[in-house]
Design a protein that fits this description.
The complex is a heterodimer.
Chain A: H1 3-7, E1 10-19, E2 22-31, E3 37-41, H2 48-55, E4 63-68, E5 71-72, H3 77-82, E6 84-87, H4 99-109, H5 114-127, H6 143-155, E7 161-165, H7 173-190, E8 193-198, E9 209-214, E10 217-223, H8 224-230, H9 236-251
Parallel strand pairs in A: 3-8, 3-9, 6-7, 7-8
Antiparallel strand pairs in A: 1-2, 1-4, 4-5, 9-10
Chain B: H1 3-23, H2 25-49, H3 64-94, H4 96-101, H5 107-135, H6 148-169, H7 173-189, H8 197-203, H9 205-213, H10 215-227, H11 233-253
Helix pairs in contact in B: 1-5, 2-3, 2-5, 3-5, 3-6, 3-7, 3-10, 5-6, 6-10, 6-11, 8-9, 10-11
The chains are: A alpha/beta, B mainly alpha.
Chain lengths: 252, 270
C-alpha cells in the first residue's frame, strides 16, 4: 500500500473472504479518492455486500487490510468507523420510533451532544426534504422517504466516507434520481468520498470512478470513460456486459 | 470511546429499550399476568398440600405463596432476558443490529448496554409484580425491597447474558421461539423456584442433582436471601460466574466471523 493509498478515505488491500469453502472475495484491492463518487458495479452475487460487511466491520477477514482515513480497521476499529456513514441495502430504521427519535438515537450512538444532534437533525431533515415528517413514525413513511431518513442518518456525524449498498432497491424513479443527484452533490460540495454499490449501470455517471466486481474479483478499475475505452465498448452497459460475461465464460 | 460518548450511547440504548417496552403494552401485561397466575391460582392449590419447614432465610413457617415469590421474580427476569434476546434476533433479521454493530462503539459495550437495558426493564416489572402481590395479601418483607435491587441487577444481567449467547447462535426468529421453550421451561421447573430443594430430594435424587447444576436455582436463592436482607454467598458466586461465562460467550458469539475455509459459520451478522 503506497503513501497516497494510506491516506485515502478508503484503501482496501488484498482482501479475501470465504463462506466456509465458497470464496466470496478474492484478493480485492482498490482505494478511493476524496470528493469522488466511485461506483462499485457488479452483478448479483459478485461480492458487493460481503465487501460492505467487511468495510463496516460486521465481518472480519483473515487476509487483507482495510484502512479508513488512514486508520487500520482491525487495529483502530473505533477511529476507522468514526469516519464512516453507511446506508445499508436493507432498511434499518426502527419502524415504531419517529423520524426524529431514530436520528436522535443514532446521534447518541455516535456520541453527538444533544445540542449538536438537534442542530444536525434539523439541517439534514431540511436537506432531505422531510422536516414536516420529523414527528411521524417511520412505519407511516413511504419507502423513498425511509431511504431519505437513512441518508440523513448516515450524514449525521459528518463522515468523510459514505457507503451506500444498493440504496435504490425498491425506490421509484423520482427518489432514485434524487438519491443519485444528492450523492454527487455531497461528493462535490462537501468533499465526501462515496462508494456506491449497484448492479444498475444507469446509476453510474460518465465522470464517476468505477470498480467492476465479478465473482469476488476486481475485473476493471478506473474512470468510467477509461474503462469503456479499455474494453473497446461503445458505452458502460456494453463494457459491463463484456467484462462480466468474459469472466463467466472463463468459468465454463 | 470517551466517557461522555459512552454515557450518551448507553442512555440511548436504555431509552430505546424502555420506549419499546412502553409501546408494547401487551408485553408488560404478559410479564405481570404470568407470575400472578402462579401466585393466585397455583399457590392457592399448593398451599393446602405442601408443607414448608423453616429453612434459611426464613425464620418462621411461611405459606407457599411467600415461598414462591422469589421464583416468580426469577421467572419475570428469565422471560425478560429471553424477550430481549429475541429482539436482538429480530433486529439482526431487520438489519437495525447492523447499524448498532457498525458504530465506533466496542461490541462488548453494545452488548453489555443491551443487557443492562433489559435488566432495568425487568426490574420495573418486578416491582410492579411485588406491589400487586402485596395488595393481594402475600407477606413480602418491605424492608427487603431495596437490598434486593443490586442482586436483581446481577441476576437480570446473568439471564440476559444467557439469552444473548443463545441469540448469537440462532440465525432465524422462528428457531429462537422454539429454543426458548427448551431453555425457559427446564430452567424454571428444574430449580428451587417452585419447591424447596429438600422436597425435590425427597421425591427424586436425580432431579435434585439436576436442580443443583441449574444456575437458575442460584439466581432464585440469591433473590430469596436478598429479600430477607441476607447474603447467600454461594448463590451470588455461582450467579456471578455464570454471568462471566455467558457474557464472554455472547461477546465471542457476536465477534465478526473471519470467514475462510476453516470457518464453520458464515457470519454472526448475516
Amino acid at each position: 500500500m503506497d503513501d497516497i493509498a494510506m491516506r485515502a478515505p478508503l484503501a482496501v488491500d488484498g482482501l479475501s473472504y470465504a463462506y466456509g469453502r465458497k470464496r466470496a472475495l478474492d484478493h480485492v484491492s482498490f482505494s478511493l479518492a476524496p470528493a469522488r463518487v466511485t461506483a462499485l458495479l457488479g452483478p448479483n452475487g459478485a461480492g458487493k455486500t460481503t465487501l460492505f460487511s467487511l468495510v463496516t466491520g460486521l465481518f472480519d477477514s483473515r487476509t487483507g487490510r482495510i484502512r479508513i482515513a488512514g486508520h487500520d480497521l482491525r487495529r483502530e476499529r473505533s477511529r476507522a468507523l468514526s469516519d464512516l456513514g453507511i446506508v445499508f441495502q436493507a432498511q434499518t430504521l426502527d419502524l415504531d420510533l419517529t423520524v426524529e427519535r431514530n436520528l436522535r438515537y443514532f446521534a447518541a450512538l455516535r456520541g453527538l451532544s444533544e445540542r449538536e444532534a438537534r442542530k444536525r437533525i434539523a439541517a439534514l431533515l431540511e436537506q432531505v426534504g422531510l422536516t414536516e415528517q420529523r414527528r411521524h413514525k417511520v412505519r407511516s413513511l413511504s419507502g423513498g422517504q425511509r431511504r431519505r431518513v437513512e441518508v440523513a442518518r448516515a450524514l449525521l456525524d459528518r463522515p468523510g466516507l459514505l457507503l451506500l449498498d444498493e440504496p435504490s432497491t425498491g425506490l421509484d424513479i423520482a427518489t432514485r434520481r434524487w438519491l443519485v443527484d444528492e450523492v454527487h452533490r455531497l461528493a462535490h460540495e462537501d468533499g465526501i468520498a462515496v462508494l456506491w454499490a449497484t448492479h444498475l449501470v444507469d446509476e453510474v455517471r460518465a465522470h464517476d470512478d468505477l470498480i467492476v466486481l465479478e465473482k469476488g474479483k476486481v475485473v476493471a478499475r478506473g474512470e468510467v470513460e477509461r474503462v469503456v475505452h479499455d474494453t473497446r465498448a461503445n458505452d458502460l452497459n456494453e463494457a459491463f456486459t463484456r467484462l462480466t460475461s468474459a469472466r463467466a465464460e472463463e468459468h465454463l | 470511546m470517551s466517557p461522555t460518548h459512552a454515557a450518551r450511547a448507553f442512555t440511548a440504548i436504555v431509552t430505546r429499550e424502555f420506549l419499546r417496552f412502553v409501546q408494547q403494552k401487551e408485553r408488560f401485561f404478559a410479564a405481570l399476568v404470568r407470575p400472578l397466575i402462579w401466585l393466585v391460582v397455583f399457590a392457592a392449590g399448593f398451599r393446602a398440600t405442601l408443607g414448608l419447614s423453616i429453612i434459611p432465610p426464613y425464620q418462621t413457617y411461611i405459606s407457599y405463596d411467600v415461598y414462591v415469590v422469589p421464583g416468580l421474580i426469577g421467572m419475570i427476569q428469565i422471560f425478560n432476558g429471553m424477550q430481549s434476546s429475541l429482539s436482538m434476533v429480530y433486529d439482526r433479521e431487520m438489519g437495525s443490529m447492523r447499524v448498532l454493530l457498525s458504530t465506533p462503539l466496542p461490541r462488548w459495550f453494545v452488548l453489555f448496554s443491551r443487557m443492562l437495558a433489559a435488566t432495568f426493564v425487568s426490574i420495573v416489572q418486578i416491582y410492579a409484580f411485588v406491589a400487586i402481590a402485596l395488595a393481594l395479601g402475600t407477606d413480602v418483607p418491605l424492608e427487603g425491597l431495596l437490598p434486593m435491587l443490586p442482586v436483581l441487577v446481577l441476576t437480570g444481567l446473568t439471564l440476559s447474558a444467557i439469552g444473548m449467547f443463545l441469540s448469537s447462535w440462532i440465525r432465524q426468529l422462528e428457531n429462537f421461539a422454539g429454543i426458548m421453550n427448551f431453555v425457559i421451561f427446564p430452567m424454571f421447573f428444574i430449580s428451587s423456584a417452585l419447591y424447596p430443594l429438600w422436597r425435590v430430594k425427597e421425591s427424586s435424587l436425580w432431579l435434585f442433582h439436576a436442580c443443583q447444576w441449574n444456575p437458575f436455582t442460584y439466581i432464585v436463592e440469591a433473590i430469596r436471601f436478598a429479600m430477607y436482607g441476607q447474603v447467600n454467598a454461594e448463590a451470588l458466586a455461582v450467579v456471578a460466574g455464570t454471568l462471566a461465562v455467558f457474557g464472554a460467550a455472547a461477546v465471542a458469539g457476536y465477534t465478526p466471523a473471519r470467514g475462510g475455509p476453516a470457518a464453520g459459520r458464515a457470519s454472526s451478522a448475516r
